[in-house]
Amino acid sequence: MALVYQPMMQLSGILFSLLGWVLSCLTTYLPQWKNLNLELNELEIWTMGLWQACVVQEEGGMQCKDFDSFLALPPELRISRILMFFSNGSGLLGLLLSGFGLDCLKIGERQQEQKKRLLLFGGMLVWISGITAIVPVSWVAHSTVQEFWDENIPDIVPRWDFGEALFVGWLAGFCLILGGSLLNCTICSTEVHPSSVHYTVAEQQDQCQRLETETRP
After folding, report:
1. How far apart are CA 214 and CA 217, in angstroms?
2. How far is the CA of 40 from the CAs of 43, 44, 137, 158, in angstroms?
3. Tens-digit pLDDT profile for the chain (217 aa)?
4. Between the CA of residue 202 and those of 3, 167, 216, what are the distances in Å?
5. 146: exposed, middle or buried (Cβ count in 10 Å: 0-12, 13-18, 19+)
6. Minimal CA–CA distance to 11: which of 192, 174, 179?
7. What string of DSSP letters covers 22-63?
8. What residue numbers bound the domain in which 20 lies?
9. How far apart are CA 128 and CA 145, in angstroms?
10. Which of 36, 100, 133, 210 to pair with 6, CA 20 to 30 A apart?
11. What 3-state DSSP class applies to 65?
12. Percent of the chain scored above 70 by pLDDT?
């Protein structure tokens, strides 16, 4: 029964991993990590991402300005850049390795042990990619909450709120972790105990002997 569901689990793992990787790349470049809604000027909404800050006007226009210096960014945004790059790179490498380790791929059919290792290593990389995608998103969300409830900041000063990119990043991390877990679970389901193998071989030999005795005149 495990062998029947194994290709389905592998395909599901690859699809979830691919979806998570695409969402992770999208999260990296979206400028909506933080939203600043000005109550005094409701016609404008300021957003901030890892690379640029943008202002969205009610007429539909959007103007963005790239950050001049990497060192001038807050610590959470600097570390988030590095972690998101690592997440995207490890996710892509994990997808490639897992793809070569799929059972439905005809390449390397006689090298099952190598394909299992590729699938296992690829699944681990995808799982790590999901963790490194959730960490920066959660860190920025935590710092945003701290700044929002900071009593030292006057109430008249506008405060940053969660942006859409944070929710996309959480979804990306969940999909990557789920995809990597499914790929690793297929390795466990392919293990066959020696006792079951000996039992199957003995049963086949008995059937062959019965057929020979029945066909004899």
Report:
1. 8
2. 9, 10, 29, 9
3. 445 577 788 888 999 999 999 999 999 999 999 988 666 566 778 889 999 988 887 776 788 888 888 888 888 899 999 999 999 999 999 999 988 888 776 665 666 778 888 888 999 999 999 999 999 999 999 998 988 887 777 777 778 889 999 999 999 999 999 999 998 888 776 544 444 434 444 444 454 455 445 545 5
4. 21, 56, 22
5. exposed
6. 179
7. HHHHHHHH-S-SEEEE-SS-TTEEEEE-SSEEEEEETTS-EE
8. 1-31+73-190
9. 26
10. 133
11. strand
12. 77
Q: How many domains does the chain have?
A: 1
CA distances for 90 relative to 28, 183, 202, angstroms: 14, 15, 46
Determine the 3-state secondary structure of 170 from DSSP: helix
Joined together, the tokens standing for residue 208 give 């062959």
Helix, strand, coil percent values for the chain (each to nearest 5): 65, 10, 25
- Residue 137 tokens read as 């998103």
108 belongs to a structural domain = yes
**CATH number, position 112:** 1.20.140.150
pTM for this model (two decimals): 0.79
